[in-house]
Amino acid sequence: MSIKDCFNKPSPALWEKLLWHPSSTQLEQFCTLQNLLSHFNKEVNLTRLLNGEDYWIGHVFDSLWPMQTLLSEPQKVLNCIDVGTGCGFPGWAVAIALPKAHITLVDATKKKTTILQKISVELDLNSRINILTDRIENTGQNMSYRGVFDLAMARAVADAPIAAEYLIPLLKQKGEAFLFRGKWSKIDEKNLNKALFLLKARIKTVESVELPAKRGKRHLIKLQAKFPCPESYPRPIGIPEKKPLGI
After folding, report:
1. What is the end-to-end Cα distance of the chain in Å, rounded?
2. What is each CA distance from 219 to 74, 104, 111, 179, 211, in whole angstroms?
């Protein structure tokens, strides 16, 4: 598939704002991904952000702007996990942009993970992509995944205290968790800090960006473990959502 097969080519301003430019191979992979998502979206509702700026800003840019430091080190080996991945973002974007990153995509819906596996093969990323069908509460207690990731990500997955309980147990020492958020307030931060106290973690930074084309403001909350996460977290399936930590 060639670059010309993109629904709409991204504006050069998008890459300039990101302070990163994809190679021709990477741009072709993003275009292929756009077409694959459009194709499989007819079978399973994966995403509504498929055309033009919806895709390039809503998925690609929004997934990569928190990675600007990592984008400057493309040869860095990373073990990453994308929790509640849905259609595969931010995981796909990270896998394409960072050629040494290994990505685990976790989702509880078998129909979605089956499609994600097909897309992984089509993009020739299956050697670096692991697709897991599971509830994240189980994943966090699975010793094959607990405490092994450099980067754990959650985009549009639950409120911050809930997402933190999903992510922190997955981190290795000095690993980071990225919470992708739209709106963010002092109340949100207060509630998150209550949960992090129990998880033995802390907020490292809170960052924000104005999306291109006046598409709103996004926030990134970077989390870091202070001590090993208590073994009781994450709690059993459904409990984190029913009884968020610290609230």
Report:
1. 49
2. 23, 23, 30, 8, 10
Distance CA 129, CA 136 (A): 17
Which among 142, 199, 151, 192 is positioned nearest to 172, based on CA atoms? 151
Distance from C-alpha of 15 to C-alpha of 26, rounded to nearest angstrom: 13
Round to whole Å and give the CA distance between 59 and 85.
Answer: 12
pTM, two decimals, is 0.94
Cβ atoms 217, 211 nearer than 8 A: yes
The tens digit of pLDDT for each residue in 205-238 reads 999 999 998 899 999 999 999 999 999 999 999 9
Q: Which residues are paired to 206 by β-bridges?
A: 221
Tokens 């509880």 belong to 108
List alpha helices for 65-208, DSSP H: 68-71, 91-97, 110-122, 136-141, 160-167, 186-199
Q: Is 34 helix (H, G, I), strand (E, B) or coil?
A: helix
Strands 201-210 and 217-225: antiparallel
pLDDT tens digits along 40-73 = 998 888 898 888 889 999 999 999 999 999 999 9
